[in-house]
Write a structure and sequence with these properties.
This protein is mostly beta strands. The chain has strands at 2-6, 12-13, 20-27, 32-41, 45-53, 59-65, 76-84, 89-96, 113-114, 124-131. It has one domain (2-131): Sandwich (Jelly Rolls), CATH 2.60.120.230. The strands form three sheets. A four-stranded antiparallel sheet has the order 1-10-4-7, with no helix packed on it.
Length: 140
């Protein structure tokens, strides 16, 4: 098993910003079956979305949580594997709320937030658990 890890260190959220977005994407180097997803974000995150765009242009939603809760971090398994052919673009995007209206914002008043491993409000990544297709793996 392997993981497609989507991560961006470009976080630089101004104090008071209600709709800050950051994204990252990766292309599958071989055919894979996505068997699950691991969203991870801390207190300022409001939305997490992961979408696969297949080489033929077809889009498949892999994850969309439009009202993120810090307690939902974990590993989620798909009911059926999702076939991602070689050349599929997998993109994740996060939306953050660094305003005083965000009840989860630990900074009062809000302050500028940047990427950093010692800053617990800024972490976010999305891992897609994948395996090489087998003859027994059903396609979805």
């Amino acid at each position: 098993m392997a993981a497609l890890t989507l991560l961006s260190r470009k976080i630089d959220i101004p104090a008071g910003e209600k709709n800050y977005r950051v994204s990252d994407k990766v292309e599958t180097p071989v055919d894979v079956d996505a068997i699950g997803i691991i969203p991870h974000a801390h207190l300022l995150a409001k939305e997490i979305k992961a979408v696969a765009t297949l080489p033929d242009g077809t889009k498949k939603d892999l994850l969309w949580i439009d009202d993120w809760d810090f307690n939902w971090q974990g590993s989620y398994s798909y009911k059926d594997p999702v076939r991602l052919p070689k050349g599929t673009s997998v993109e994740m995007s996060f939306r953050f709320d660094n305003s005083a209206e965000n009840a989860n914002n630990p900074n009062n008043p809000p302050r500028r937030v940047r990427w950093g491993s010692r800053r617990p409000t800024r972490w976010r990544f999305c891992g897609c658990r994948c395996c090489r297709p087998t003859r027994r793996t059903p396609r979805s």
